[in-house]
Write a structure and sequence with these properties.
The protein has ten helices and 24 strands. The chain is α/β, with parallel strands linked by helices. The chain folds into two domains: 187 residues, FAD/NAD(P)-binding domain; 139 residues, FAD/NAD(P)-binding domain (3-Layer(bba) Sandwich). It has a seven-stranded mixed sheet with strand order 7-6-5-2-1-8-20, with helices on one face. A five-stranded parallel sheet has the order 10-17-11-12-13. A hairpin with a 5-residue loop joins strand 6 and strand 7. Helix 1 runs parallel beside helix 7. The mean pLDDT is 93. Bound molecules: flavin-adenine dinucleotide. Flavin-adenine dinucleotide binds next to helix 1, helix 2, strand 5 and helix 7.
């Protein structure tokens, strides 16, 4: 069939901030018959990452910070699948359907890559296999359970060395995720220690390690110094100017040679662009980000575009836009407009955006915020701003209400210490045994 006689196939890879923003704009602006949109993502929901630290501490329920992709789209076709590879010569994407494991190739006329980033441990010895990341919903759920387990384990032993190890949590990385997670862990322990009378508050050690000289590097120094003072006041030990050298079964060793005995290392020290399209001929920076022009078109390819965390997007002043949700949601509409312009034979436009600022919540009703003009707000007002802004930004009225409800409950009740193993193999086997059934794997439906 002649291309001119049928709609252009626009395929979007990734259903996060960037991918959804592109799809929504295309849905709104494409004329009937001009293009058909397919969005492929490995989960059927988008994750609202700014609230992930609160999920890891049990303040927010896991389901409340995700929004189903289908509910955010009007007529785009959604495919629940893992993107495996890209065949640029055949104009096809190779995917594996998440639930059935079936492989398929999907053709495109315009391709948008919005696959985000993954956690990087920089190849440090022993680190990748021992740390807990805070990037996905699973990470947050696992971490929350882990923190509860630590208290159960510490309560079940009288060996002081073992108790110390269980009750020491190390957070590596003093950027906004590490700072927010640390503040949230303090709140979790503070809230639930009443249920563990054998554990004194002074026994719990939370250590935050930042390789640079201050917390929140890259933001106004007052934000870092306020955060450090606030966390210290709440009992956090902060180590700056020292990085992780390696990890082993007993804990971690810092570059200075200092050793910290711990069973729990939370890693928020590095992200790298998604490795998924690694084997394709797309140009990449040393970090692995896809090289695009200011209009998001991948260098050397007329029909491939990239945005968000997986792309290196020139800011027009010699640098690159930072990998934040704030940027990805603004990049999406401009990229979509450029695809439409291309389909209509019109010129594309460069992306330009001045960041609104950054905010980090410290828990305990405190936060730090960088406002336009590089002004800094700290304390309760910053926290109020953080909550109001992100609540407004969370997609879906039902999600907004659920989160607001979680926050209200938290004012009245301690955090939940129910230890959830619902989806684990162990829990499934014991549920099957209880029901008098042979053990079976309910994790994948095998349909
Ligand atoms: C804990 C945490 C807190 C954060 N807080 C903030 C904040 O407060 N403010 C802010 O501006 N930014 C924040 N960020 C950064 C922000 O989340 C990212 O910059 C943003 O998500 C980037 O959007 P994206 O569309 O590029 O990628 P993402 O939103 O990560 O979307 C990528 C999508 O691609 C899917 N995907 C990936 N690989 C595959 C594959 N192979 N096959 C199929 N699908 C795939 C993923 O499942 C995901 O849906 C935070 C990040 C984290 C981890």
């Amino acid at each position: 069939m002649n291309r001119a006689s049928r709609p252009a196939r626009v395929v979007i890879l990734g259903g996060g901030f960037g991918g959804i923003a592109v799809a929504q704009r295309l849905e709104r602006r494409l004329r009937p018959g001009e293009g058909e949109i397919t969005l492929i993502s490995r989960e059927n929901f988008s994750l609202f990452t700014p609230m992930l630290p609160e999920v890891s501490s049990g303040e927010l329920d896991v389901r409340h910070v995700v929004t189903p992709i289908r509910s955010q789209l009007r007529h785009a076709h959604f495919v629940l699948a893992d993107v495996r590879a890209l065949d640029v010569d055949a104009h096809e994407v190779q995917i594996t359907h998440t639930l059935t494991g079936r492989d398929e190739r999907i053709g495109y006329e315009q391709l948008v890559i919005a696959l985000g980033s993954s956690t990087s441990t920089f190849g440090l010895p022993g680190v990748a296999e021992r740390v807990f990341a805070l990037k996905t919903l699973e990470d947050a759920g696992i971490l929350r359970n882990r923190l509860v387990w630590l208290l159960e384990l510490a309560d079940s032993t009288s060996d002081p060395a073992l108790r110390r190890r269980y009750l020491t949590v190390v957070v590596v990385g003093g950027g906004f995720t590490g700072v927010e997670a640390t503040g949230e862990f303090v709140e979790l322990f503070h809230s639930v220690l009443r249920f563990y009378p054998s554990i004194d508050r002074a026994m719990v050690r939370i250590i935050l390690i930042e390789g640079g000289p201050v917390l929140l590097p890259g933001l106004p120094p007052r934000m870092g110094s306020y955060s450090a003072a606030n966390l210290r006041k709440r009992g956090v030990e902060i180590i700056t100017g020292d990085g992780v050298a390696r990890a082993d079964d007993d804990g971690i060793v810092l570059q200075s040679g200092a050793r910290i005995e711990t069973a729990t290392i939370v890693w928020s020290a590095g992200v790298a662009p998604s490795p998924t399209i690694g084997g394709s001929p797309l140009p990449r920076t040393k970090r692995g980000a896809i090289v695009v022009g200011r209009d998001f078109r991948v260098e050397g390819f007329r029909d491939i575009w990239a945005l968000g965390d997986c792309a290196a997007i020139p800011d027009g002043a010699g640098g690159f836009y930072p990998p934040t949700a704030q940027h990805a949601i603004r990049e999406g509409p401009v990229l979509a407009d450029n695809i439409i312009a291309t389909l209509r034979g019109q010129p594309t436009k460069p992306f330009s955006f001045n960041a609104l600022g950054m905010m980090a919540s410290l828990g305990a009703r405190r936060a730090v915020a960088q406002l336009p003009g590089n002004h800094v707000l700290t304390g309760f007002l910053a926290w109020f701003l953080w909550r109001s802004y992100y609540l407004l930004r969370l997609p879906g009225l039902d999600r907004k209400l659920r989160v607001a409800f979680d926050w209200t409950l938290e004012l009245l009740f301690p955090r939940d210490i129910a230890e959830l193993r619902v989806y684990s193999r162990e829990a499934q086997s014991s549920a099957a045994a209880d029901a008098g059934l042979p053990p079976h794997d309910a994790e994948l439906p095998h349909i």
